[in-house]
Design a protein that fits this description.
This protein is an alpha/beta fold. The protein contains 13 helices and 18 strands. It has helices spanning 14-22, 53-61, 69-79, 94-110, 130-143, 159-168, 176-183, 191-195, 210-229, 246-254, 295-308, 320-337, 354-366; strands at residues 3-5, 31-37, 84-86, 122-126, 150-152, 171-174, 197-203, 235-239, 259-261, 271-276, 280-284, 290-292, 313-316, 345-348, 371-374, 383-385, 389-393, 400-404. The strands form four sheets. It has a seven-stranded mixed sheet, with helices on both faces. It has a seven-stranded parallel sheet with strand order 5-6-4-7-8-3-9, with helices on both faces. Strands 1-16 form a two-stranded parallel sheet. Helix 9 (210-229) links the parallel strand 7 (197-203) and strand 8 (235-239). Helix 3 crosses helix 4 and helix 11 crosses helix 12 (320-337). The longest helix is centred in the middle third of the chain and has 20 residues, at 210-229. The protein starts with a strand and ends with a strand. The relative contact order is 0.16.
Length: 405
């Protein structure tokens, strides 16, 4: 799910919010179940001795004063050349597990202390969505590390930028389609990157399942064969908050022995899960069966109420059309309740222009947008600081669910 990080003191009280939603006219029976997950403390450890001082300083400036135990455990495994899958909870800092060894190696090479043949070591980051890759790129650039050139290589990348990426980028962020259709068929042009490839990061690896997962597994095997052709043997680092049997799944995907790090040492605030059932309507279906209000309409109402209360919310729906419908309905209702708030709600889905997607992501990150109705285009691992609630339309069964954090 979407990563969520926010100091507890700044968040709306979840029970007060739920009481407000359930206490509206005719809503007394819609809240069917509430589950509370208690808070837990974190287990920080010291920075490893091998971590580059410039990287540690940048991370401290960004607010990461000490790493969590699982981050260092996974980073140590990756640095020793053992493929690893990090399977810890949402917002547990899985990214640091691969950034720590990958960026340390680049900075060490830039200092002149590492291997110099073919330039600094490179990392290939593979994400299932463009939004996730863009979010990772923002995080990398925010560290402002000298000599660390990072860039996304996807369908939105301009032609003139692609040559620069092949020549200079030490951290390339892409997706399985570009790896299959562009990088591997044109591997001769990527010789510099492939010859120095040190790490391959597979983020949100649970996304690669079924037939699609088998295709991606074959692509990763092709990548390994091409790397061997150029004399490279990269270490794989995989990450997911929801994968089942992480070591087994990661091993099937990569064709390698993979060690799992699955004990989450990060702190977590109290989380409240609530199941919300749309009400029955006067309509009748086949053989007079009662018909409930649609989950899409119910989510639009809930999104409206949450935005009015100042609760920063993302509503996940199953289709592009539903995303637009929820956003339009919420904006119309907000204009009726409090004119001016409608401009703080938007839809996010595939099919938008790249600049439109980036603008929406920035507005959501900054807090300019209070509510977003989206498909899973925004779901996979995008770190949204300050998010308070998540609405999931259609799960479980035909119910709408509310995740209030």
């Amino acid at each position: 799910m979407t990563s969520v990080r926010l100091p507890r003191a700044r968040r709306p009280n979840p029970q007060t919010t739920l009481d407000s939603l359930a206490g509206g006219p005719g809503r007394g029976t819609r809240l069917t179940h509430v589950e509370r997950v208690p808070a837990r403390p974190g287990l920080p450890v010291d920075w490893p001795d091998w971590a580059h001082p410039a990287l540690v300083d940048a991370l401290v400036r960004s607010g990461v004063h000490r790493p969590w135990r699982h981050q260092v455990e996974a980073a140590e495994l990756a640095r020793s050349g053992r493929s690893v899958v990090v399977s810890t909870g949402t917002a547990s800092g899985k990214s640091l597990a691969y950034l720590l060894p990958a960026l340390t190696d680049v900075l060490t090479a830039v200092d002149g202390d590492g291997p110099g043949l073919g330039g600094p070591p490179t990392t290939l980051y593979v994400a299932p969505t463009k939004a996730l890759a863009a979010d990772q790129l923002r995080s990398l650039r925010a560290l402002d590390l000298p000599g660390v050139h990072a860039a996304t290589y996807d369908g939105d990348t301009e032609t003139e930028s692609r040559d620069w990426i092949r020549r200079h980028a030490a951290y390339v962020l892409t997706n399985p389609d570009m790896l299959h259709r562009s990088i591997l068929p044109g591997h001769a042009r990527w010789a510099r990157t492939l010859r120095s490839l040190q790490y391959v990061v597979i983020d949100e690896c649970h996304h690669y399942r079924g037939v699609f997962g088998s295709h991606v597994a074959m692509v990763l095997r092709r990548l390994q064969r091409v790397c061997a052709h150029y004399g490279a043997d990269p270490t794989f680092v995989l990450a997911s908050a929801t994968v089942s049997e992480p070591a087994v799944s990661a091993g099937r995907l990569t064709g390698r022995a993979v060690t799992a790090v699955d004990v989450d040492a990060s702190p977590r605030g109290e989380t409240v899960f609530a199941l919300w059932e749309p009400p029955l309507t006067e309509l009748r279906g086949e053989q007079g069966a009662p018909v409930r209000r649609t989950a899409t309409a119910e989510v639009a109402d809930l999104l409206t109420d949450l935005v009015v209360d100042g609760v920063r919310t993302v509503a996940f729906v199953r289709s592009r059309r539903a995303a637009e419908t929820v956003a339009l309905t919420a904006r119309r209702l907000l204009d009726e309740v409090q004119p001016g708030l409608s401009g703080r709600v938007a839809a996010y889905r595939g099919g938008y222009l790249p600049e439109e997607r980036r603008a929406l992501e920035r507005s959501l990150q900054s807090g300019e947008l209070l509510g977003v109705a989206t498909t899973n285009a925004l779901e996979l691992g995008v770190d949204i600081a300050g998010l308070d609630a998540v609405l999931l339309a259609g799960y479980p069964g035909t119910r709408a669910s509310l995740w209030q954090q």
